[in-house]
Amino acid sequence: MFAQNKLEVVAEFPSERPGNIAVSPEGRIFITMSALVSSKYMVREILPDGKTIAFPDEQWASQPAANSTIKGINGTIGIQVTADNILWVLDMGNPNANPKQNPKLISWDVATRKLSKVYILPDTVLSPASFLQDFVIDLKNNTAVIADMTSSMNSTINPAFVVINLETGYARRVLENHSSLLPLDEPIIVDGIKVTHKKPDGQSIQPKNALNPIAIDKANNFIYFGAMGAKKIYRIPASVLADESLTDQDTAKFISFYAEKPISDGFKVGENGRVYVTDVQQNAVGISSAEGYQKLVTDKRLSWPDGLAISNGYLYITANQLNHLPLLNNGADSSKPPYYVFRIKLD
After folding, report:
1. Which of 15, 33, 241, 322 has the most CB atoms in a 10 Å sphere around its CB?
2. Order of strands, edge to edge, in the sheet holding 232-237?
3. What integer is the mean pLDDT of 141-150?
4. For residue 180, what are the CA distances in angstroms to 130, 136, 151, 184?
5. What are the tens digits of pLDDT across the range 296-308?
6. With 0-12 CB in 10 A as exposed, 13-18 as middle and 19+ as buried, what is 330?
């Protein structure tokens, strides 16, 4: 077993909830604010004193103005910083906007805050229930790979990867409904309470959460992934997902089981084959490897650990109590702020 390392508070939030997190090569910390609740600025930088500022600026970090251009972010979860010091954010879009706002992948230069690229996803790679969350940037093969969980509130889910060629902008929907992307047929239980969604007609359901956590190793050799509501991590060569000539049937042959995991909302690949995993049912973060799964740290403040980042010997963690939101708590709000960004020293 690993010794229980000490959590350090990086930032705390009295009302808004952090989503995912990324840390730049020089140690600047960036977060998205959870798309499940309202926030003024969707993307923020955490300053050394724990305060936050909009990134790259207030207009881009806010929701787009009505009938405006695409400048702004409708809602976001996924965020990454690549080794070339580019910050990437996935805007989940807004189909109800006028005009409709399709999801888009945006990048900025961290040092200058200048816009780098925008990739707008076409309807052809989306499903009616698309719910685009985590993603990876593969610099070796010049691709982005997005996990489309599809909404767990729907009776039918059809998770898939959305793969973008970052040179041409060409996007594909890949491996839809492959077995490795699907959740178990069992509820998520946290502190003895089932995660439950109350529908507008009053019916209560336990969401089934498909493909969500996705990560890439430092060498950009393998992409690791799994269903949030399942207990296995799989991996596939990054070059295979980047290969536009392969059929889904051909691509699926390269998927291999990697390790066991708990029910998890996010994970990150570290050194020596370790995958750091959020353990939402146990208020914990652990390590999955070929040897199995072990908890790294358990703390009541790790209420729904969500996003992870690794930088300079530290593991950064967001904890946002999503299971206490009315959306996932049968219509009742049992949240107990504050919400946190932590870090923990890695051995």
Report:
1. 33
2. 211-216, 222-227, 232-237, 256-260
3. 97
4. 18, 18, 17, 11
5. 999 999 999 999 9
6. middle
The count of other CB atoms within 10 Å of the CB of residue 169 is 14
Hey, what amino acid is at 203?
Q
pLDDT at residue 3 above 60? no
Are 285 and 315 in contact, with CB atoms under 8 Å apart? yes
Domain regions of the chain by residue span: 7-345
One DSSP character per residue, 183-225 reads PPSS--EETTEE-BEE-TTS-EE-----EEEEEE-TTS-EEEE
User: In which residue are the tokens 């997005």 written?
Assistant: 146
Question: What pLDDT shows up at residue 67?
Answer: 65
Both tokens assigned to 111: 């040092």
How far, in whole angstroms, is CA 130 from its chain's centroid?
14
User: Per mean pLDDT, which range of 39-48, 91-100, 326-335 is the poorest?
Assistant: 91-100
> Which CATH superfamily, name and number, covers 7-345?
TolB, C-terminal domain (2.120.10.30)
- Helix then strand count (H, E) for the chain reads 3, 28
Q: Contact at 8 Å (CB) between 170 and 143?
A: no
- Contacts of residue 289, defined as CB under 8 A and 6 or more positions apart, other chains included, come to 259, 272, 273, 274, 275
The pLDDT assigned to 1 comes to 43
Q: Residue 262: which residues within 8 A CB-CB, separation 6 or more?
A: 231, 277, 279, 280, 281, 282, 284, 286, 293
